[in-house]
Amino acid sequence: MNKNILSAFLFSSLATFTACNKHMEHKYPDTKKDVVEEEYFGTKVADPYRWLEDDKSSETAEWVAAENEVTQEFLSKIPFKKGIQDRLTELWNYEKITAPRKHGEWLYFYKNDGLQNQYVLYRKKPNSEVEEIFLDPNSFSEDGTTSLSTIKFTPDGKLAAYATSTGGSDWRDIYVIDTKTKEIVEAPVKNAKFSNIAWKKNEGFYYSKYDQPKDGSQLSGMTQHHKLMYHKMGTPQKEDKLVFGGIETPRRYVGAYVTDDQQYLVITAAVNTTGNELYIQDLSKKNAPIITLVDNFDNNHSIIYSDKKQFWIETNYNAPNGKVVVAKVNAPERAHWNDLIPETENVLSVSTSGKKIFAKYMKDAISKVYQYDLKGKKEKEVVLPGVGTASGFYGEDEDKTLFYTFTSYTMPSTTFEYNIKTGESKEYIRPNVKFNPNDYTSEQVFYASKDGTKVPMIITYKKGLKKDGQNPTILYGYGGFSVSLQPSFSVANVVWLENGGVYAVPNLRGGGEYGEKWHLAGTKMKKQNVFDDFIAAAEYLKKEGYTSTEKLAIRGGSNGGLLVGATMTQRPDLAAVAFPAVGVLDMLRYNKFTAGAGWAYDYGTAEDSKEMFEYLKGYSPYHNVKQGVAYPSTLITTADHDDRVVPAHSFKFAAELQAKDAGKHPVLIRIATNAGHGAGKPTSMIIEEYADIFGFAWYNMNVTPGLNHKVDSKNM
């Protein structure tokens, strides 16, 4: 949405409304209803709020301003909201440091001194304690809303290309910096989107881009022709060469990386969020042809390592949980692949360092890591510090040690240094959070979904919890796109937990926790399984005494926003509070915006068939709000620069809920300005949003948090 238009109307008073007290009738902005219908297979479907899809119109801007005014009026009257924000700020104010990566002569790592809006990229020499700032994204914009999205170094570490995002948008500008002088040496490359950066020595880099949309705005217009480009250093962007993609491969997501030995360009192409074609090009030969290794989108494949004789490839071809295969350089096609690390009952992901393969498995969403040699011999298990999530294990061939991070719902992300030869781990960086993990516990349970499928869920709470049904509980879910929800620490959730709250995360079908079979069990005509799994999780929590309907909030973002929207329209009696965030809420038109067409593998589209149309319409949150039904207290959250899931989804859903809800509970929408889908959001905005979410939840559960917490740091 145009920022100037939005600002002009920010304080407009288009709506007359009462003071927002939860015991009073709620008055919302008068939202125009148009007579708009679209026909699908002979069925006409009304879409009265389609005008809200126009993010460039002043009329939409007026509506946004009026809705925000109502929402902020309500939130400002929550008596303990400031206390929540103060406690969040206090907890957030600790030094955060990521695991380092070596580039050239330096170790690079990100650090936030506590409340900085964006993490700062630092560096230091190995075996030295002297640090220096390399790149500070907080200097990119005055309000901290321009972020650093990615950075890639040349093999010798002398140059780095980094991409920035403005206001949370997926569009990127790429800059090149000399690592010695820290000076920008190239004019920015524009219009990169969904892009990796892959250096070809120091000569230039590969990136992916779209042309600007011809129809609609930059933030909502459909993008179809993804292009893999090569930018040669010292030349203007207009001379960049198209390597792959474009008009001849419509609606593909195209990406690339270069093997560590700089021998091969690896190209991936996908039409959905899972499954990819795989190509290689020999960079040592001028004008070498692009060779096809895989010519379909049925499975996932990536080259993880190579030498002059063969490729090591991670794939789920004939192995839904994943495996590692090898292929000879002179016969790399899939027909010639040979298994190296076979499939197991647990889902696999791999990385390499020190000429070793690190196999990271998920067992019921919990990490297990094993070290293999390049011939596929298992050498040792990496002994992890607890039950949780391990990530990292990346490095170069010459590395003797590497770094990894470990976290859980009760353990802040801690960095460990691992000796590849001995297999020993030692603590490298432990954050000093004002939180004692010994006061809390996480337990994993398995519950039965509607069809009898066993679904795992991790429930976290303060020790001594009474299962009397009176504990305020957040049930958080996702369930899609093969995304796995593994345990991770959230400083924001500490505020919820220390005030007697319960935080529960089920691993729903549609995710990747049990491989591709689990994912497919929650897609297209099986999407209802995801909602059933989530509803069953809520019923389990109530049956076992963790909480009750009056003390339960359901929450999820993006595809998880769809989850919450579908759940609350199917079971409005399930929970007291609902938080659909940046959700996909209009299932008949999601594929009409930005890159939404790429989600069809999970969802299907209304154009596919009459059966698919009817199935989508049957659960689409926007199309299933019913007149006269009392819905939960609802706070929809979105952002004006979200060009992943355009805010029109949330706008239309909010308008429909406000028009038809028969209850006395508030139905509000919180629209962040100069923010996007979530990545790169400034710390100050994150804290403010969590204060609103927790405050809204407690207030509508009739719970007053204590907010006076002293932590015994002796055991921290």
From TrEMBL:
Entry-linked SUPFAM superfamilies: alpha/beta-Hydrolases (SSF53474), Peptidase/esterase 'gauge' domain (SSF50993)
Residues annotated as domain Peptidase S9 prolyl oligopeptidase catalytic: 487-702
Pfam families: Peptidase_S9 (PF00326), Peptidase_S9_N (PF02897)
Domain Peptidase S9A N-terminal: 29-426
Enzyme nomenclature, EC number: 3.4.21.26
Keyword annotations from UniProtKB, A to Z: Hydrolase, Protease, Serine protease
GO molecular function: oligopeptidase activity; serine-type endopeptidase activity
One Gene Ontology term from the biological process aspect of the record: proteolysis
GO cellular component: cytosol
EC class name: hydrolase
Signal peptide location: none
Entries under Gene3D superfamilies matching the protein: alpha/beta hydrolase (3.40.50.1820), Prolyl oligopeptidase, N-terminal domain (2.130.10.120)
Catalyses which reaction(s): Hydrolysis of Pro-|-Xaa >> Ala-|-Xaa in oligopeptides
Function of the protein: Cleaves peptide bonds on the C-terminal side of prolyl residues within peptides that are up to approximately 30 amino acids long. Has an absolute requirement for an X-Pro bond in the trans configuration immediately preceding the Pro-Y scissible bond.
PANTHER family in the record: PROLYL ENDOPEPTIDASE
Family that this chain belongs to: Belongs to the peptidase S9A family.
Protein name: prolyl oligopeptidase
Native source organism of the sequence: Flammeovirga pacifica
